[in-house]
Amino acid sequence: MKMIVALLLLLALSNAVKINGEESDGQCDNKLTLDPRPHSVSILEFGAVGDGKTLNTIAFRNAIFYLKSFADKGGAQLYVPPGRWLTGSFNLTSHLTLFLEKGAVILGSQDPSHWEVVDPLPSYGRGIDLPGGRYRSLINGYMLHDVVITGDNGTIDGQGSVWWDWYSYQSLNYSRPHLVEFISSENVVVSNLTFLNAPAYCIHPVYCSNVHVQNVSVSAPSESPYTVGIVPDSSDNVCIEDCVIDMGYDAIALKSGWDEYGIAYGRPTTNVHIRRVHLKSHSGSSLAFGSEMSGGISDVHVEQAHIYNSFSGIEFRTSKGRGGYIKRIIISDVVMESIYLAFAATGQCSSHPDDKYDPNALPLLDHITLQDVIGTNITIAGSFTGIQESPFTSICLFNVSLSITPGSPTSWVCSNVFGIAESVFPEPCPDLESSYSNSSLACFSLMHLNGKAAAL
After folding, report:
1. Within 10 Å of residue 440's Cβ, how many Cβ atoms?
2. Taking the mean position of all CA atoms in its chain, how far away is CA 168?
3. Burial of 273 (0-12, 13-18, 19+ CB in 10 A)
């Protein structure tokens, strides 16, 4: 076994990472080059009042409608000066920069009549909370190109407490809105801002390409139910870097549709690069894959992550009826502190959008590498519970050292999982340290060679 692993590592040193057949350090190194906007207007020019009480929805909508006329002239910028700018939901336009000055706070209205109700996403078939429609997100982009939301550390605050109460008391009429959502858009940048108190998800690119989220702070209180920070969803060529995220449920969650709806829509989340992030989640996972992953999730590279004070560190979720796949995932250079469950992979996330799903649509979880991980104050090292009819394969652990808290009930839990492990402490379950099969031959191993990632 050790000779085979050594051979794999030796081969890894001679092969550079190749994405779509070309050498690459990852999506985050492919910077979007967006030219400065030649035109700029202030939201003040459209009658907005930054007192935190006056509703400015019409001002935002009118400003963006006006700036739409500059799309073929190099685009334009909407400048938001210091103040507290209360608004309902509004839509962006292509070739637009929304810039929030330091001290500028966009506040989401707590009156649901200020949030339009729209159809559910086709890859989900219903809202995330309830069957039927959903409230439109606060800031939206639909079929846009070249859009930037940025600033000098301005703030977008969803004021989500009322939505959390309605969710908890089951008094919602429709599924909760998100804070920022882009649908079927490309060349999107979100940077240099603080995001607070999203009603549900904070930043949600869905059916998008070329998305760069950089240097943002995202948070919601620990008691906020099922709030999630950044959610790449059926999107490709995504970079998330230099972010600090602290959420009630998941910090970052990768998704791609729900059961029969996600299978039919058939758009995966792929080519995602996440690096230099600080992640904290209260009741969910700091880094989650699924459970809605029916369109597939693949080719994800996570590196230099600090995960702390969380229930779960890294988690893969799926279920019978999901179909789809989670594969070719490489996670390396991770520091974990005070985590109840460091690693998890489960095939028992049994929630479904309706009763029309196919229970024989079995998901695939394969080619998962976890490497160079140090953890302190960990209660359980890992729980891998696969599906009997579709076991999890090629779960590969290299150079993992976890300090388990005294009195921990167990270090590892495994069933219906196969993989290999090298230099892992505490000693993993036999399924991960001695099972070697053809599927394990394809295990990914990440090395750092001359400053570049190398993989087999």
Report:
1. 21
2. 23
3. buried
Neighbouring-strand partners of residue 312? 285, 341
Q: What are 217's two structure tokens?
A: 């702070």
Q: Kindly report the pTM of this predicted structure.
A: 0.92
3-state secondary structure of 391: coil
Q: Give the whole-angstrom CA distance, residue 223 versus residue 364.
A: 33
Structure tokens at 127: 């809202």
DSSP 5: H
Report the candidate in 331, 398, 327, 396 with the shortest Cα–Cα distance to residue 366: 327
Region 412-426: what's the mean pLDDT?
A: 94
**Closest to 214 (Cα-Cα) out of 275, 154, 156:** 275
Among 177, 150, 165, CA closest to 87? 177
Q: Determine contact, residues 262/292, Cβ cutoff 8 Å.
A: yes
Any idea what the Cα angle at residue 96 is, between residues 196 and 67, rounded to 5°? 115
Token code pair at residue 116: 């339009």
171-211, pLDDT tens digit by residue? 999 999 999 999 999 999 999 999 999 999 999 999 999 99
